[in-house]
Amino acid sequence: MTRKGRHEPVRQARPVSRKRPPPQAAALRPIYAEPSGEPSELVAVRDRGGTGAGVLAASGGAIAAAELSASVYGAIPGAIFDTALAALLLLTFVLRSDRAWARLLPVMALVALIRPISLAAVEPRLPVLAWYAFAGLPLLIGAVLAIRLVEEPRRQLHLAVERPLADLAVAAGGPIAGAVAYLLLRPEPLLGQPNLAGYAATIAILCVFGGLLEELIFRGLVLDAATHALGSAWAAVGFATFVSTALYWGSGSLPYLLLMAAVGVLLGLGLQRRVSLWGVGASHALMLVTMALLAQVSAR
Amino acid sequence: MTTTVTGLVSSSLTQHSYDFLSTHIGLAVIILLAFVMLLRELVPIVRNGDAPLQVRGLDVAVLPLLIVFAIVVLARLADLLV
After folding, report:
1. What are the respective helix, strand and coil percentages of chain B, to the nearest 5?
2. Greater confidence, A168 or B1?
3. Which of A79, A165, A229, A265 is least buried, going by the fewest C-beta atoms within 10 A?
């Protein structure tokens, strides 16, 4: 009699206390409770840290596995696998779009499409410099479209310049990293017959389709999606670095791979210290431009 | 030097003809484009026209794939005409 009396009120209260908001409302509500931008103040969202982290880890691991397999089976099977993975991620996004972690799926699909697009969009008979533009243009458009999935792009993607001196300091590190990267990778010169227009095109293409594009994807979109899915800014920096480094596997140089991992960690940590995405992108762009110019000069 | 054009991508591009690449990767990309566009058209119908989030998410892939499709078609046409 006493036991039954204790349980009855709980049964009555249960439907009220466990009532969930409608799926669309849960998906569209703001992720952050406070506009302070501090990662520690992330609020819990439905399914965060559980399924979201699992989906993120599985998709990141699959992309990395495809890159690793390319060194054994060639780039084409890995790229076809990436294409199938992108289809799976987008289908999951459509079927599970009411989940809080669903927003990361189109971003990971875009990352999975990097290799197929870089192989399919490039006509090999074009100059090498044009390869970067042809591979980068579709991805840049996709990344810009992915910004529309972010609730507060200015804050979540670190687009606001809050510490201009810190931005400049991070950007100034780019040429130093570029010199080290050149020594490690020794890339081929991009221009067959260098002239002023060729140098200008090199700088423009590497800045837009190299540094800015990669930082928008990895330190912007992937980092933001991973922060929401994993609930930890540090884990998100690690994940974004892991994915971007995996895509450098095809460079064929382990020291260069490790350098890019270190650069990825440092730039990710810079963003946590309120450096803007522009500063991080400028640093990466200057790194690539330094590498290209050193390769061009040394080829003379 | 970048994630888009690595050494492995460069060697694949120089080893294979564009015909070969577009027949394999290009075909896979075009099949994916058809699949994603089909999803993009079906989702609003299934959800009674109320699927802005899904459409925006699919657009992330649709437009890049459309550009790649255009490049593949133009390059193959140029091969035929030259």
Report:
1. 85, 0, 15
2. A168
3. A165
